[in-house]
Amino acid sequence: MREAAFVNKNKEKWQLFEDALYNKKVISPDKLSDLYVELTDDLSYAKTFYPSGNTVIYLNSIASAAHQKIYKTKKESKNRFVSFFKTEFPLMFYSHQKQLLIAFLVFAFFSICGAFSAATDIDFVRLILGDGYVNMTLENIENGDPMAVYKKANEVDMFIGITVNNIKVAMYAFILGMLFSVGTLYIMMQNGIMLGSFLYFFYDKGLFWESSRTIWIHGTIEISVIVIAGCAGLVLGNGLLFPKTYSRLESFKRSMKDGLKIMVSTIPFFIVAGFLEGFVTRHTEMPDWLTILIIVTSLALIIFYYVIYPVKVYKNQQTHA
């Protein structure tokens, strides 16, 4: 079709859309929506067959003006941050409970493997944790302060360093999900083995309770959100592996969006974990009841927000649908 014929065929609907856009002519929302879709389709057609013609310039100007009007009048909620954590994220996360369970089971399994390997091979702990850390800890044990490693650095420096490092580990767990989830599972395995061998090392020295009461002050949230980051990685990987009715690219985009939302949800928790490790964990003299209170409260918060609350929000949404 020649450009002139294309213009004559469609100019009436273009004019109608212009009247609604600039002259505020009253048109039903459905009709206006249909006209906008047809306009963008015509623009795509014109770009293909008349790339250097005036029709492209004309249609592009109308489409751009319409887009600007739509988003200029769209006001962002002042409570966007609150609504994300209160409703948007939990509702989305409800559909990814399976991936969360898988990430947790993989992490737990390799934690057990790490502890078993440390129990059966005397050199395994050094292989995983490094000679430097093991030698330093043995020296601290001999000096009567096994948890001295948490007291050496400045509180603020430790808080910032630990928080940044934990977020980095979580981002690896997420981004490596692009390797069809294999990369994420590897990070879960690596961190699980490290935790298991770490715990067994102190158990073997008769310091299981003393080490646990110290490291789980911050570790409850820290380990939990790393597992949640693993869930985000599996969501990303599953989008590539199982596109369902979408194209693989569209499925990837959707899973990336959901994965990023999961990662955003973990940031406050990483900050809390970093704060606890930098400012609280070092106080090994605190009474057991206070330590247990912090650990139990942290665990309850994680379970409530990532397991119980999404179900509650989903059921509430279904009730009012």
UniProtKB/TrEMBL annotation:
Stretches that traverse the bilayer: 100-119, 158-180, 185-203, 215-241, 262-283, 289-308
Organism superkingdom: Bacteria
Pfam families assigned to the protein according to its UniProt record, in alphabetical order: SpoIIM
Keyword annotations from UniProtKB, A to Z: Membrane, Transmembrane, Transmembrane helix
Name of the protein: Stage II sporulation protein M
UniProt source species: Tenacibaculum larymnensis
